[in-house]
C-alpha cells in the first residue's frame, strides 16, 4: 500500500478511495520600474539592500503612494483572465510577524480585490481542454528575502543564522487565486501544471512580468486536500509554498495526494499547515501551522485611498491588450500549416514559444524548430531540465542559425558553439572566437588539404574516374578531419570535383 521511503500510498489506490480538490495561488511580480508603494527601483539583481527606502524598510512616518502602472497592469491581468474589474477596491493591512517583512504587516487586498470571478482555459498534453475558474486577482507587495547560513541545504532547517535582504520588499505583486478545482481525479497534477504554464505564458505575453520562476518572479502555492469518494465535504488542506517550476508543481500535487492518503489510511488527521517542496526528490516537508484569515487581523489601510477604476479607463486598457497566447497559437498553427498533433507536440515539449521568439529574431520557423526540438531538446534531456531552462536564449539560437546560413559555421561547428553558450562561456560570437570555430575561408589551405586527401586515397580517385561519383564522401571526410571541421563544405566539394575532372 505504501512506499517504505516516504510512506506514500500507491497513486492508483489513492484514486480508488479519494477525490482530490486543489486550489492554486500564483504570485506574479510585476516588471514595473519602481516598487508598489515607493520610488525605489524594482529591478532584479542589485546588491543586497541596495533598492530600499523608508517605505520598504517600514521606518516610522514613511507613507506609501500607489504605483499607477501597477494598478493598470493588475487590471490588464484581470481582463485577460476574463475577470470582473471592480470600479472601487481597497488596500488592507495583513498583519503578521516575519523577519523579512519590516513593517510587520503586508499591504494587500482582502475583501475588495480589483479583479474577481474569471477563468482561464488550459490545454492538457493530450489536447483535452480544461477550464480553471479564478476566484480573484488582487494587488499586494512582496516581502523581502531571507538567506539562511550554516545549514547544508540553504534552508532554515539546520541554519545557524539568517541574513535579511529587503530589495524585494515592496515589489508589486499580483496574487491570482483559483476557485476549488474539483473533478480532475488522476489528472489533478497535470491540470495544475497546465494551468500554471498557461498563466505564465499569459502574463509574459501581456508584457507585465518576465514570469521567471527560477528567479522567483512567479511563485506557486498549491493547496491540496482529499475527500472520500462519493462525499461532498472538503478535506483538510495543506499548502505547499513557493514552488518554482512547472515540473515541481505537478510533482508537489501528486506527492501530497499520496502522502495525505497514507496518513488517512493510518487514521491520522491531516494538519492544516504550510509545507516546503524539496527539489531533490519531489517530496514535501512540514512547515508551520496554516493561519486563517482571522489570524491576519485584516483592516483597511488608513494611509492609502481606495483605488478607483472608471469603466472608460478599463475599456481603454482592454483595447490595448496584445494578441493573447491562445489566439496567437491558432494563427501560428495556420501559418505554419501544422496539424493538431504537431502543434500539441511542440507545446508539450515546451518548444512553441521558444520557436516563435526565435523567428521574431529573424530565423525561419523550420530552422528554429529544427534546433529547439532536436539538438537543444537533447541537451535539456541530458541536463534533466525543462527546455526553457537551458542557458541559451532565442536570440542566441537565431544568431547561430544566421552564422550557419552565412556559411561562417557548419552544423557541426554550430553545435560546438551552442555547447559553449550552454557552458556559460559567453555569447555566441564570443564562443565562436574563443574556440576558433569559424569556417576556414582560405581556399589555398583547403586546396592543400584536398590535394593531400586525394594523394592518400588513389583507390577512391580511380573509382570516381571509373564512374562511381558517390565515393567522394570519404575525401570530403578526410578534408574536414584535416581542417578540424572548419572547411567550407561547398568549397571542398567544388575543389574535389574540379581536381577529379
Low-confidence blocks of residues: 1-5
The dominant shape is elongated
- The counted number of beta strands is 16
Distance between the termini: 76 Å
Strand order, main sheet: write it out: 2-6-7-10-1-11-12-13-14
Count of domain modules: 3
Determine Rg (CA atoms, Å): 28 Å
Would you summarize the structure shown here?
With 501 residues, the chain is of the alpha+beta class. It has helices at 11-17, 68-80, 188-206, 246-265, 311-319, 325-336, 340-348, 352-359, 365-383, 394-405, 411-422, 428-435, 443-456, 458-465, 472-482, 489-500, and strands at residues 18-29, 84-85, 88-89, 92-95, 105-108, 115-123, 129-141, 145-149, 161-165, 172-178, 218-228, 238-243, 273-278, 283-289, 299-300, 307-308. Helix 4 (246-265) links the parallel strand 12 (238-243) and strand 13.
Amino acid at each position: 500500500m505504501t512506499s517504505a521511503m516516504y510512506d506514500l500510498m500507491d497513486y492508483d489506490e489513492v484514486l480508488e478511495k479519494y477525490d482530490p480538490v486543489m486550489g492554486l495561488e500564483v504570485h506574479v511580480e510585476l516588471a514595473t520600474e519602481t516598487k508598489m508603494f515607493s520610488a525605489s527601483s524594482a529591478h532584479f539583481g542589485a546588491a543586497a539592500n541596495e533598492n530600499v527606502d523608508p517605505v520598504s524598510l517600514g521606518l516610522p512616518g514613511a507613507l506609501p503612494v500607489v504605483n499607477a502602472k501597477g494598478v493598470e497592469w493588475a487590471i490588464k491581468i484581470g481582463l485577460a483572465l476574463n475577470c470582473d474589474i471592480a470600479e472601487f477596491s481597497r488596500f488592507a493591512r495583513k498583519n503578521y510577524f516575519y523577519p523579512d517583512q519590516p513593517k510587520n504587516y503586508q499591504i494587500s487586498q482582502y475583501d475588495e480585490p480589483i479583479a474577481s470571478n474569471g477563468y482561464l482555459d488550459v490545454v492538457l498534453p493530450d489536447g483535452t481542454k480544461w477550464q480553471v475558474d479564478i476566484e480573484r486577482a488582487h494587488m499586494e507587495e512582496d516581502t523581502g528575502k531571507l538567506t539562511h547560513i550554516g545549514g547544508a541545504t540553504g534552508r532554515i532547517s539546520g541554519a545557524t543564522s539568517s541574513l535579511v535582504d529587503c530589495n524585494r520588499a515592496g515589489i508589486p505583486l499580483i496574487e491570482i487565486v483559483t476557485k476549488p478545482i474539483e473533478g480532475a481525479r488522476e489528472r489533478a497534477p497535470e491540470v495544475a501544471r497546465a494551468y500554471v504554464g498557461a498563466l505564465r505564458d499569459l502574463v509574459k505575453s501581456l508584457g507585465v512580468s518576465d514570469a521567471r520562476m527560477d528567479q522567483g518572479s512567479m511563485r506557486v502555492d498549491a493547496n491540496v486536500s482529499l475527500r472520500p469518494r462519493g462525499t461532498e465535504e472538503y478535506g483538510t488542506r495543506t499548502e505547499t509554498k513557493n514552488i518554482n517550476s512547472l515540473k515541481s508543481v505537478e510533482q508537489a500535487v501528486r506527492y501530497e495526494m499520496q502522502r495525505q492518503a497514507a496518513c488517512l489510511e493510518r487514521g491520522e488527521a491531516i494538519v492544516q499547515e504550510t509545507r516546503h517542496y524539496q527539489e531533490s526528490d519531489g517530496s514535501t516537508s512540514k512547515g508551520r501551522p496554516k493561519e486563517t484569515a482571522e489570524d491576519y487581523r485584516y483592516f483597511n489601510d488608513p494611509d492609502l485611498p481606495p483605488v478607483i477604476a472608471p469603466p472608460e479607463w478599463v475599456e481603454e486598457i482592454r483595447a490595448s491588450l496584445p494578441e493573447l497566447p491562445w489566439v496567437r497559437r491558432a494563427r501560428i498553427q495556420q501559418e505554419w500549416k501544422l496539424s493538431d498533433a504537431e502543434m500539441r507536440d511542440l507545446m508539450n515539449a515546451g518548444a512553441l514559444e521558444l520557436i516563435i521568439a526565435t523567428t521574431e529574431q529573424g530565423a525561419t520557423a523550420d530552422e528554429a524548430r529544427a534546433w529547439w526540438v532536436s539538438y537543444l531538446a537533447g541537451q535539456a534531456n541530458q541536463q534533466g531540465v525543462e527546455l526553457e531552462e537551458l542557458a541559451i536564449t532565442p536570440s542566441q539560437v537565431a544568431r547561430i542559425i544566421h552564422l550557419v546560413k552565412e556559411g561562417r559555421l557548419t552544423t557541426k561547428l554550430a553545435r560546438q558553439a551552442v555547447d559553449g553558450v550552454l557552458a556559460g562561456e559567453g555569447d555566441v560570437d564570443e564562443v565562436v572566437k574563443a574556440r576558433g570555430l569559424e569556417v576556414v575561408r582560405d581556399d589555398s589551405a583547403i586546396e592543400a588539404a584536398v590535394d593531400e586527401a586525394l594523394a592518400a586515397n588513389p583507390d577512391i580517385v580511380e573509382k570516381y574516374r571509373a564512374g562511381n561519383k558517390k565515393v567522394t564522401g570519404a575525401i570530403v571526410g578526410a578534408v574536414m578531419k584535416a581542417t578540424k571541421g572548419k572547411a567550407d563544405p561547398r568549397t571542398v566539394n567544388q575543389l574535389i570535383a574540379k581536381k577529379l575532372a
